[in-house]
Design goal:
This protein folds into two domains: 31 residues; 283 residues, Metallo-beta-lactamase, Chain A (4-Layer Sandwich). It has an eight-stranded mixed beta sheet. A seven-stranded mixed beta sheet has the order 8-9-10-11-12-13-14. α5 packs parallel to α6. The protein contains 13 helices and 17 strands. It has 318 residues and is an alpha/beta fold. The termini are far apart. The longest helix has 30 residues. β8 and β9 form a beta hairpin. Bound molecules: zinc ion. Zinc ion (ZN) binds next to α4.
Length: 318
């Protein structure tokens, strides 16, 4: 009996000492000043965990220069849409992410506008994946990155599907996709111009609204304040969404206070490997939105069952 008691006491003592030894370390990890805490990497790239739900992944593409946007959307019934593919040099990274998720087919590949940090990665993706439709605005462009994209499309026998304001379709059975900008008139006018500025092309980016039951998402690509103002005037009733993709990677060219007030996002995502503007970041925070920038959080996954929304960042930088 005494031996048993001694044995139990000894075990208790060992457990207590282990807890004391481990807890300072745990504390060190969760409260450390600069440590990056990996919290969601396994969940982020888990293929099975969120099946049957809407999944949106903001990919973090690592490069020394601005790597651009790439957002993968998977409907609850498994259809896929890729909004942009980042720049040429990060095409392989994107390809590996798609491999990890076993995404072999992109049902809707979207090139929001012809700038290299949005279409470049398609050079790789067009060679490695099956593509259903490739959606883009009908805009002429003369860069090498753009002509290579057109060549790769020809090689795969893919014609562009031009889309504009008012076009809508369903991703799978239950996710509504609506193009809310640019207008046909703006595109026709642009085609008559001899040369379009960077700003002009950015303002002609596709703006896409996605709705799944109670949740709505707005993808704004690279629009500037001028286009935001137009949308506030013309599309006010469509702009109030739960999750906003901050225009132009969260840069100060965009994110008018009036636009933020109209969109009223609960969550704002900033797709940027290089952090763009503290001012804009704080503007969203002050407006009551939670802000997730890929430069801070790495890859970010949003999961929705139509009722509940969950945001899973790859890491937290404190
Ligand atoms: Zn861009």
């Amino acid at each position: 009996m005494i031996q048993r008691l001694l044995c139990v006491s000894l075990m208790l003592l060992i457990i207590i000492s282990l807890t004391v030894l481990i807890s300072p370390n745990l504390k060190a990890i969760t409260t450390s000043g600069k440590k990056e805490v990996s919290i969601g990497r396994n969940e982020l790239f888990n293929k099975e965990q969120h099946q049957g739900k809407l999944q949106i992944r903001y990919f973090h593409l690592e490069a020394n220069e601005k790597s651009g946007d790439s957002i993968l959307i998977k409907s609850p019934d498994g259809q896929t849409m890729l909004i942009d593919a980042g720049m040429v040099d990060t095409g392989d990274q994107l390809d590996r992410y798609l491999d990890q998720l076993s995404i072999n087919k992109i049902d809707y590949a979207v090139a929001t506008h012809p700038h290299h940090d949005h279409i470049g990665g398609y050079h790789t993706i067009l060679q490695s994946r099956q593509i259903g439709l490739l959606l883009m605005p009908d805009l002429p462009h003369t860069t090498e990155v753009y002509s290579t994209l057109l060549n790769r499309m020809t090689e795969r026998n893919i014609q562009p599907t031009y889309v504009k304001d008012g076009d809508r379709f369903r991703l799978g059975k239950n996710v509504e996709v609506e193009i809310i900008s640019p207008s046909n008139g703006a595109l026709e006018k642009a085609k008559k111009e001899k040369k379009l500025s960077t700003k002009d092309i950015n303002n002609l980016s596709l703006v896409i609204k996605l709705t799944y039951n109670n949740h709505s998402f707005l993808f704004t690509s690279d629009i500037y304040k001028k286009q935001e103002r137009k949308l506030v005037h013309l599309k006010e009733d469509l702009l109030d969404v739960d999750v906003l993709d901050a225009p132009h990677h969260g840069d100060s060219t965009s994110s008018l206070q009036a636009f933020i007030n109209t969109v009223k996002p609960s969550y704002t995502m900033m797709s940027a490997n290089i952090f763009q503007s503290k001012k804009v970041y704080e503007r969203y925070l002050k407006s009551g939105s939670e802000v997730y920038a890929t430069s801070m959080y790495g890859n970010i996954l949003i999961v929705s069952d139509g009722e509940h929304l969950k945001i899973i960042p790859e890491k937290i930088k404190r």
